[in-house]
Amino acid sequence: MRWRWRAISLQARQLLAASLGLIAFLGLTGYALDRAFTETAQSGLQDRLRSYALAYLGGMDITRGGILLPPEVPPDPRFNRPGSGLYAAVIGDTIEWQAPSALGQTLPLDLALDPGVERFEGPLASQSEGENGGAGGQPVYRYALGIFWEQGEHAFTFFVFEDARVVGEQIAVFRQALWRYLGGAALLLLLVQVLVLQWSLLPLRRVERELGRVQRGEAERLSGRHPRELEPLTGSINALVRSEREHLDRYRNTLSDLAHSLKTPLAVLRSRLENGAGEAELREEVRLQVQRMNDIVSYQLSRAATTGHQLFAAPLEIAGRAEEIVRSLEKIYAAKGVLCEFEIDAAARFHGEEGDLMELLGNLLENAFKWASHRVVLTVASHPDPAHRRAGLELVVEDDGPGIPPDQVERLLQRGVRGDERVQGHGIGLAIVQDIVRAYRGELSVTRSEELGGARFRLYFPPGL
């Protein structure tokens, strides 16, 4: 059952939820209106029966002998027509009277009220006195009023009854009309809901079609024409597609570069073998070419280590990792006595792979330690943006070394180029930094430090989704 529920489409889920909500709302609305109409009808009936009772009392009289004289003209002609459904009666200690309409009826007169007390209730059972012993009676509503007649000091209860079918028929007609209209409204609203769902889900269907085109290779990315609620999704999908393609391109390029770079030392070895070089000479050549191939493989592996932009990576704290790298560098460059200072924003976080962060910090700090005279400064700042969930990140490494001439910056960022050929290294550290920054859609700038006078490397990663 759980699997089947998951298999239901979004449109079916929305339609089902809307239908249940609509049915519940209309059902409660219909019930409330039905109860309100019923109570209103009964309240109107009570007022009408009270007016009949007061009209009777205003026109009747009681003789000295305790005989009740009703008015010559009753409040309603039905009081004079037997079985009309409208009845009146008086029950007291010494007085009893019933209107002509109560002939043949056994009314519920089992109630005695104190003077001034009134009561309305119903429907109550009544009986019709006929051949079946009263089996054909209809329920009635009863209004009773306690009276004390000062002339003669008579106490009695005045009753007015009306057939419950009158109110019942009114309620039945109202209910039939109510549920007919509510049913029509429900069908109309369901139709409108279907049309609204069809219209509101059009962007999702468009995204689905575009994804299909991307999967078939007919398009390179999703279009940017989507509602703002879908922009984080489509933006992430586009970034993921772009990142995966960049990864694939980088791996292909790395393998191609590795194969191309190994051709030369292999060709040299083959040439030496074919030329019949001596054992000592061949041994030395093999040693040199193996060392060269080892350097080439190390270089390509370092290049492939830049994993690139990770869309859903957890935020990484920077201070602890920077301290770990600096401790190692201080041991290596202990003879120089370089002091590294930190100015790190506690809220700053790197959103990406830990290996990429270590590569960035390691290469920049090692380069600074290598060229610094005495001081290195690492500055990390966070740049929040209300329009994005992920703050921007600025990372700056400065040293007091000789610095880098502006006309040499572009050349030094190329792979395999070293600032000083006499200094040990492969010349790929800054190139790796540039590749990682580019993969994370960041910016790398190299200038002169105004405070220390040496090189200043600034990395900036923009806010993200």
Automatic annotation (TrEMBL):
Record EC number: 2.7.13.3
Alphabetized GO MF terms: ATP binding; phosphorelay sensor kinase activity
Bilayer-spanning residue ranges: 178-202
Histidine kinase domain sequence ranges: 257-465
One of the record's GO cellular component terms: plasma membrane
SMART domains cross-referenced by the UniProt entry: HATPase_c
Main location per the UniProt record: membrane
Keywords, ordered alphabetically: ATP-binding, Kinase, Membrane, Nucleotide-binding, Phosphoprotein, Transferase, Transmembrane, Transmembrane helix, Two-component regulatory system
The name this protein goes by in its record: histidine kinase
